[in-house]
Specification:
- With about 120 residues, this protein is mainly alpha-helical.
- About 60% of the residues lie in helices and about 5% in strands.
- The chain contains five helices and two strands.
- Strands 1-2 form a two-stranded antiparallel sheet.
- The longest helix is centred in the C-terminal third of the chain and has 21 residues.
- It is elongated.
- The two termini are about 15 Å apart.
Length: about 120
């Protein structure tokens, strides 16, 4: 796999799905709807016949293929989200909005990763 292919895989597999449902919620969404979207986006980032994988575990699996790139932004947000994952049910709306913002940052950092790779 080339560096470009590996970066595009990160962009697609992690960047696309880590903030998929939450991004479509409007300001009128209930706290329960926001929590459900974040649980799906962060704890069930990859879903398939083999089960579900959370965003941090998925990043751990994808990271080695892009290790030569600047991963600081992704790593920093992934560490913060790792701490958020077990607390999603306990967070109030403000806390959930902060987690949603971190998920959006992770998605954006994954998209920017492809820009680091020269053709």
């Amino acid at each position: 796999m080339t560096q470009r292919e590996a970066a595009e895989r990160v962009r697609h597999d992690l960047g696309k799905y880590v903030h998929l449902e939450a991004r479509w919620l409007d300001e009128d969404a209930t706290t329960a709807e926001l929590r459900e979207a974040l649980v799906n986006d962060l704890r069930r980032t990859r879903r398939g016949p083999d089960g579900e994988i959370d965003c941090c575990t998925l990043w751990e699996r994808l990271r080695p293929a892009v290790a030569v790139l600047d991963l600081g932004a992704i790593d920093a947000v992934a560490v913060a989200l790792q701490a958020d994952l077990p607390r999603l049910e306990a967070l109030d709306r403000s806390g959930l909005l902060a987690v949603a913002a971190r998920a959006r940052l992770l998605a954006e950092a994954c998209r920017r990763l492809v820009d680091q790779v020269r053709d």
